[in-house]
């Protein structure tokens, strides 16, 4: 029992084995308690040395799971991260961004997690650590359903790895979030896009959609359809692409039909923004 | 620091050392305790406010190592070694924060003040990083803090002007009627001293928690409470219906007192109280309400008017066939005949949603026994009504109950009804010691009153020349499980559903309908905002059909002096709607031209301008509605005003003294004011129905005039003599006339029990007449009038609406304090905007501030207020009420603007992006 904020990962595993509840930024952890009591045995992972910070390493970037959204928003990152940084600026409020973490956003596994679409477009992988060792999973395999992840008992999400796939010139990225008010809003739908232009045409593209399925989805068919397209052709290609994998629900924020309708518009706009950014380089 | 709160069970407390507002502190708290809780309850930093405990409102914003965070989402143990700054510390130590406080004061950027600590702390993080922020930077930096009173614009102005190069305005200082002085009660809201409902109780006070129904409709059986309490020895008390010494019912209107304090065996809505548990604070923090022994047997629930009025629907209250609560009716002329003869007709069915009041302060307070009397502390809009409601429940005479209102962090109608009071009162009486309660956000949303959802059928006819011919209105208002102010809504709506227009032929019927929804009660406008949506939207369609300009159509039909209202009441003066509408002409022309130019470019964004009018009768409808004001003079010459009107942010603590000072003929700063306390301030009635400036203001005027006469009579001075109070309070009193100064020999006069040598008490009751069976009579002594313009930009592909500009013309008769007028208008507009575009409370589904959306900083546009002063013969110095009026025209103006931008005519509120997009597709937008 008690509040553990270890600076050695071994101590974290021990607390975890004793049933401690893992807390990072706390911005989802506390609201999840509702009006009920707060657990009395906590493992605070924000002081663990491997869990924080943004670092360049061979072949890519590594973002510690307990890195705050503000740190990501304010970091000097390549253009491909523009969508992730834009998403970070729309996580709750400045107050939430100062405390809330990227790893917490993934582990909370909300269908409307702001970080998911951009990380999917960045081909992110997660690093999971436990007393038994380390394993690595593609992000799409880590979040398995609404409020469900592949995290095993005794395991912690340590970092997010992002490969250098998008280092080439001509790359642009964007994020678009649709909500019914300006600040502090949960998405009705959101999209992230990265593309690389070569001589004005799409050489490579990744697009992902959040809040329109239990887990945010990459749209493979649309990515393929965008190959070779000029920005003028984006809207038509988006209009014709099957939105396979999207299965929006109707809730207080909007109908399923509306979400599918709005997603195509958001996709076109995000792709245009990404293309403009790509052209600026 | 002493550990004053070792939990009776659970883990050992953690000791955490950090710097709080510059001082080293150590706190011992259970693991995982929220920083907001530790700061407030263990370290006494009660300027940190808790509005939601979920990061949705930002009221608890503090700086941790300079960065703003929500203290409700931060474990106390996390800040070990860190520096934490709160509003009170910032203002005490940082000159920049003092400048910010001055700017807030000058701009009246704090109304109720409950969000102000969060606003100021977030602003300090910005100002330290950006010395001269722009409005857009302020919006981004403060966007995580919700305000329900101000509409945000004054806060933006205040932060910008606190920056380098900004110029906080220097207000005039005598405080005479007409001067925009800062709030007299403003400073404590800006330096952290203000005490709201949850800020009264000492930290070691016992805590009460209410057990509530998880079902919309159910029977229930309580388990073995004695055994449960024995198994949980920390429990100090369990309360149920069996523990109520008096009548287990409350309500607000005689004949409609129908809500139990604790349900007996059946609950009629989700969130209804069935029991309460009292215990020490740390034990209650660990209490899981799911452990309470109770079994539920759910029953079929009727959640809307259609199902509640169906033939086979369960009947919720005996004596109310078809679940009809009551009905209001007004008939004037021959609506059927005139409608049939009208050249042009339009009709429509409209639907509005439950709207949550959304004050950032959840209900909170404390009860205690003092010298054998019950003292109730906490937030309220109606201290004397609280007293009168509690007496029969507790079986106590009125004089055994004293209500001491705290500052109230917003009310908007819901805090007229009692909520927390009977629970803590019963517990304090049983235990003989103080007991406190604070509603959770979920609890306040699930259990307190809402705006009535309405279903309206409306038909309007006109002659070809544009003269209104007839209106026929039918409305059903879902009052939820209990009556609350449902009868008032049913009565008020037919009196107002014509809008402020001249009309010879009119029929209107409004019903209140019981359902298993959350009780609906008083909310800024009492049903009139809903009926105004239908009426003003159809007026636009009628103007279009007639080929007439929407504004000129309204001006042509506007009610005027000497023309009967649809109740047959004739005002020979004071009817200001035409002046309001005419004042909009320049903005109407300019904004329409702008919209037209914008729309000339093809694109997915379309702009439009909409207009709507509104009126509202101030005070109770054809019922006695008195306010009483008392004042006294002490032997040292101090003039004391006893003003009991509850200031819930609207400004009566400033307006009433300004009126009294004018009548007495002194500067307002020279008057000592005693605010609400049922022992010390006579009944000023409830803060509702836009009545305080009008009714209590008149009582203050009468009291000031009476005291002036009394003082002058002491020295036989002439009526035009000057009363001179010492520059400091209590330094004597001089009357100056043509013959020179005469010092009053107050010390020679006998001193009464309250310490006064002279005293006055005056009552004002607005002159009204009863309504006959057709609703004809004189329901109000005065109406206030308003007309709004809205310019919107619609994203036709996404169905989103951005309001770009509001111009609001308000006839207030006489602006006692023009800055307070602007504050009311801007706050009302923001609520009207929310009602139009985003606010939809669904019982059981949106009981939090992230699923229930209210406007944020980025949603409320610049608001231009045009103050019209068409003096009213009954108002103090001509003043009229304003609170409700500010909200009424906004939603229909926005709907009309959307219609003009896109051709889509919306019939259901709120106009969410999904609803608007569907409507846009129907009218042919790709």
Structural notes for this entry:
The complex is a heterodimer of chains A (about 280) and B (about 950). With about 280 residues, chain A is of the alpha+beta class. Chain A has a domain at about 165-280: CO dehydrogenase flavoprotein, C-terminal domain (Enolase-like, domain 1), CATH 3.30.390. Chain A has ten helices and 14 strands. In chain A, helix 9 (about 235-240) runs antiparallel to helix 10 (about 255-280). Chain A is globular. In chain A, about 60% of the residues are buried. The model of chain A has no long low-confidence stretch (mean pLDDT about 95). With about 950 residues, chain B is an alpha+beta fold. Chain B has four domains: about 1-175, Ubiquitin-like (UB roll); about 205-300 and about 360-410 and about 415-445, Aldehyde oxidase/xanthine dehydrogenase, a/b hammerhead (Aldehyde Oxidoreductase, domain 3); about 455-620 and about 780-920, Aldehyde Oxidoreductase, domain 4 (2-Layer Sandwich); about 625-765, 2-Layer Sandwich (Aldehyde Oxidoreductase, domain 4), CATH 3.30.365. Chain B has a seven-stranded mixed beta sheet. In chain B, strands 2-1-5-3-4 form a five-stranded mixed beta sheet, with helices on both faces. In chain B, helix 16 packs parallel to helix 23 (about 890-900). The radius of gyration of chain B is 28 Å and the shape is globular. In chain B, about 65% of the residues are buried. The chains are: A alpha+beta (about 280), B alpha+beta (about 950). Chains A and B meet through strand 3, helix 4 and helix 10 of A and strand 4, helix 5 and helix 24 of B.
The tally of domains of chain B stands at: 4
- Would you identify the regions of chain B where 5 or more consecutive residues have pLDDT less than 50? 1-9
Based on Cα principal axes, name the global outline of chain A.
globular
CATH C-level name of the domain at 166-280 in chain A: Alpha Beta
Report the sheet with the most strands of chain A, covering strand number, pairing sense and barrel closure: 5 strands, antiparallel
Number of helices of chain B: 24
How widely separated are the two ends of chain B? 67 Å
CATH class of the largest domain in chain B: Alpha Beta
CATH topology of the domain at 166-280 in chain A: Enolase-like, domain 1
Shape label of chain B:
globular
